[in-house]
Input
Amino acid sequence: MKPLSDVRVRKAIAHAIDKRAIIEHVLGGFGENLDSLVPKGYFGHTEEGLPRHEFDLKKAKGLLAEAGYPQGFEVTMDTWNSMLYLPIATVLQGQMEKAGIKLKLEVTDQPSFVKKIGNATAESSIYMPVRVPDADIPLTNVFHSAGFSPGTNLMR
Output
């Protein structure tokens, strides 16, 4: 979905997120700043050769302007009323606003949230599934055509 279909917009979002602040202030220091889709401790984890998207508002704004959104844009983020998801979504809303992205939160109960994710009707969302420690599972579910389609298979 536009404007998220533009890689520059997605990179701008990545640069607008201060992950260290979320880890420190929302998660109480419990978490790691990783760029890998495969968490540390999982078979197949590596960060070697992966692009880094460090917090950089100037870079985020530049990428948005380059993508044709110099004044930013509005996007809806689906989340649910959990003690983990909602505080992170709220912080992301504030962080995105500093880059010019108006993040409208759509807060529902967990079953409604999971249904939207599974049906691929969420414009954007935070999705933090728990999986067994094997890289094949998150990579297949999210990127392979055999993954949970249409929802968490994000490569449609």
About this structure: The mean pLDDT is 86. DSSP finds six helices and two strands in the chain.
